[in-house]
Structures are given as C-alpha cells and as structure tokens.
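User: Here's a chain of 387 residues. Predict its fold as tokens.
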Amino acid sequence: MSMEWKVTMNNVKNLLLVGVLLSLTACASDYELKGKRPDVNPGDVTDCSFTPVSGTQVSAYDCNPVFTNTGENWGGDVGSIGFHVTEVLGHPFYQMWYTSSSSDSFGGISMGYAVSSNGTDWTPHPSNPLMSTDPSGWDKDSIAGQVVVWDPIDSQYVMAYQGFTLGTNEFDPGVWGLGIATSPDGKNWTKSARNPVINFTTDFDILFGGALIQPCWPLTITITERGALKGYIAAAKAEEAFLGMEAACHIYEMNGLDAETWIINDQRPVMEANGSYDTMGVASAAVVDFEGVLYMFYVGFTDWVQYTGYQSAQNLTLNLATSTDGGGTWTKDPNNPIPLNLTNPGEISDVGAQVVGSRILLWVTDNYEGENSVGYFYYEPNIESHQ
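Assistant: Prediction complete.
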C-alpha cells in the first residue's frame, strides 16, 4: 500500500481532527472529557465502503490493507498489533502499536506507534520505533504479541508482551516469558523492573517442577469495568508436552493482582483446541465486552511445522468464541472459521478488536501479496448473518 500523501479535503479534515485529539489527550490530566458513546458507521467516515461477508456478521473494508509499514526511517513486515480506541467528545480516536523486523540500524524486532481518526488512515509517529529489544535484557531477541489497555485507576497504559532471549546451545533454554510495560501517553514506555513477570522458562518446569502446563505464548489481557486486570495465555497440557507429542495450545485464564503480579489458573483450560480449524491451538486473540457478553476473536491453527530450534504454527484462520460467565467458559461459534484469510493455507497472524458503538471493529494482519499488512473489518453482534 502506498504511503504517499494525497492532499484532499477529506485527508485534511482527518489530520486536523487527529491534531485536535492529540492535544485533548495531552490535557487528560486536567480535564476529563465524557461524550456520548459514539455509534459511527465506519463506511460514513472512510474513503472506501465496507462489503458484507456472506454467511457472517462481518463486513470487510473495500480498500484493504489499511496499514503497511513502509516508513522512510523504519520499515518491514508488520508483525503483532495492539489497538486502543479512545472516545473524545463523542468521536473515536484510534491508536495502534505494531512490531516489525528491520534490516536497518535498529535491528531485531521493534515497536512503532500510529494514530488515526477513522481506523483506516494511519499516521506513524515520526520517532518510530518507540520501543526496541534490549541488547542486555531478557527480551533481547524479540518482543511480540503486545496488547495494550488503559488502566483508569493508575491513569496509565499497560502493555503485556511476549519477549525472549534465545539459548546459546542445546543445554541453554534461554529466557522466555511475559513482560509488562507502562506508559502515561502511549508513546513513552517503561519496562517493568520485574520482567519477565511470568517466566515461562523457569516457572513451568514439567520434569522437575511438576507444572501442569507448558505455556506456548501469551494471548491477550483485558481490564474489567472495576479496573481489574485479566488475561489469557495459550498453553499445552503437561502430559502432552512431556510425552514429546505435537501438543495443542489450549487457552488458560490468568488474573492480575496488579500489572506485575499474575496468577494462572492452570487446573483446566477455559477453551480447548479441538476443532477442525484450531486442532493444534490458538496463536493470537482479542477479547472485548459487548453488552455483557465477552467476544473472543482468535487465530486458530491446525499444523505445526518444525524448523531448527523452534516450531511454527501453520494453516491459520480467524475464529470467534463467546462467554456469558465473565470468561470462565467459552462457546465457539458454530460457523467458524470466519472466511477472511487471503491465502490457502491461511497466513493470518494477529487480530485486534475494539468496541465502538454497536459494532466490534477488527484489524487483522494477513499476507497481502507477499507482505504482512493490516486489514480492517467490523463485526455486528446484533444482526443475523449477511446473505
């Protein structure tokens, strides 16, 4: 997707709106702005329309992808994505945090930041990347899977992410776990001194420690109306992992006593990988609350492919599950998978979701003609499937 500037009245209005919203956000400590919850039809504020996907409650943006990381100073395939929508004076203001690998002077995996007034026209921060791997830290080889929530109690953004340092030989497992970073503005991030707050390498020693699960990777975190942190990780059952099987990555629940202290309910998965489309597990997930029902959009996969030193999930699709008991149990949608993947086998890698008005907005990373980019969609919970 071309990132050239096109000077049109619509873009000028969008840029002015972004500028106003950024100014208002900067003054959030002085003023609390509460407008009517927006119910904006995305097609009314975007250059292109949305087309319903037959047999689903999803509509797809006609001009996808909406974001490709082709910045002048820092570029590369888009990896994991995190989204947050702030309502300012009744208008949604979109923020995106995205990872990318780069061959330039930054090296490794880094995280950038972009804003939008409509969910499709994104303005990357001029100082990207804003967070990088630490050459001397536990996450020096990769940061990924970032999910961002706003903590109203401590007035800060909280980011959970996966990080790791590769081992140097077959006897060195390296370091791998869940990291936490916080920010007052979404741009300046401070990594927790206690990272990794969950150490997957040492905290889950199946052989000697008797752990019940072997984590695959963190999936997502949410924050409840009461300000409590909650999250989900993908993990294999210990007996499957111990026997050397190609273990499936089921979904387990975890609760945060605070941003740095998490307790995993490892007694049973809240959702098992047992469908024809998620046989081997879940690779990414986003959870939102819509009218008292939790909606989990997740990337399921059916195959492992073994490479030197690691496995990779293959044949990925987008799926949906719902919960009416606060996330303790989940029911998979009988119409899974949602037919959005662009390639066969599917190469969807990440999903982000946010509620705006009567819709759940979705951003899905997929392979667009050989380049990982972000597409835009929305799901309508209160309608029947499109014909």
